[in-house]
Specification:
- There is one protein chain.
- The chain has about 250 residues and is α/β, with parallel strands linked by helices.
- It has one domain: 3-Layer(aba) Sandwich (Rossmann fold), CATH 3.40.50.
- The chain has 9 helices and 7 strands, in the order βαββααβααβαβαααβ.
- Helices cover about 45% and strands about 15% of the residues.
- Strands 3-2-1-4-5-6-7 form a 7-stranded parallel beta sheet, with helices on both faces.
- Helix 6 links the parallel strand 5 and strand 6.
- The protein starts with 5 loop residues before the first strand and ends in a 12-residue tail after the last strand.
């Protein structure tokens, strides 16, 4: 924490499993947390909740200006510094190429790539002032993907490219990194396996670590990447995948 200053973290997608853990972890570390998501009411533990559709943020100048003003007003009223922006929100559409519409493909890019770009631009000055950090929550799908994930994997690969470009744009003033999680034990994922516990066990066994990630592990890594101890890490992709990214799955 900067001596004598309150610090603020902005977390997108705060109502999801990883988002809630991010808000909790950063709050426990002394940050004031601004959470944002599409729902009218916050489900996360945050100091300010801003309902915002990231597709609108990505495409509408009025929405961008209002969001920038709301965040800036909170930071100023708290006599604080915006120290961290965590781009956690994501849109995942899973369907074969033959059924994937251009609208769905484009929505993935707007939420997963363009919105993080917009937020970096909106808060450029505030982040430079605080020597802050941007952490993008990417995915193992950057390099290892499956049929049906065309839109999602493309958007996450682009997010990694944006991470490298922003690291150069901000240079020594702001660190910019991407975390690459594999499967993570959110309520949504667990619910999807509720009728097939054997498949969930199989998913866990595919990981050399013998399990999938917990949301808190993703949040702790994000917090570290925003700390002074991580100032020499920028432009990086940091996997947190239980070793599945190094495992070769050959047919028997």
């Amino acid at each position: 924490m900067l001596m004598g200053n309150k610090i603020v973290a902005l977390v997108t997608g705060c109502n999801g499993g990883i988002g809630k853990s991010l808000c909790q972890e950063f709050g426990a570390a002394g940050y004031l947390v601004i959470g944002t998501d599409r729902q009218a009411v916050s489900e996360a533990d945050c100091d300010l909740y801003l309902c915002c559709d990231l597709i609108e943020l990505a495409s509408d100048g009025v929405t961008r200006k209002r969001f920038q003003e709301d965040v800036g007003e909170f930071v100023a009223n708290q006599s604080a510094l915006l120290k961290a922006v965590i781009n956690n929100a994501a849109y995942q559409v899973v369907m074969p190429l033959s059924k994937l519409s251009a609208v769905e493909f484009n929505s993935s890019q707007q939420i997963n790539v363009i919105a993080p770009y917009v937020l970096a631009q909106l808060f450029d000055t505030l982040l430079r002032k605080s020597s802050g950090s941007i952490v993008n929550i990417g995915s193992i799908h950057v390099r290892l993907t499956k049929p049906g994930f065309c839109a999602y994997s493309t958007s996450k690969a682009a997010l990694s490219g944006l991470t490298r470009a922003l690291a150069l744009e901000f240079s020594s003033e702001v660190t910019v990194n991407t975390i690459l999680p594999a499967a993570t034990k959110t309520d949504m994922l667990v619910a999807g396996f509720s009728e097939h516990p054997d498949k969930f066990a199989e998913l866990e066994s595919c990981h050399p670590a013998g399990r999938i990630a917990n949301p808190g592990e993703i949040a702790k890594l994000a917090l570290f990447l925003c700390s002074d101890a991580a100032r020499f890490i920028t432009g990086a992709e940091v996997p947190i995948d239980g070793g599945i990214g190094v495992r070769l799955h050959d047919p028997l």
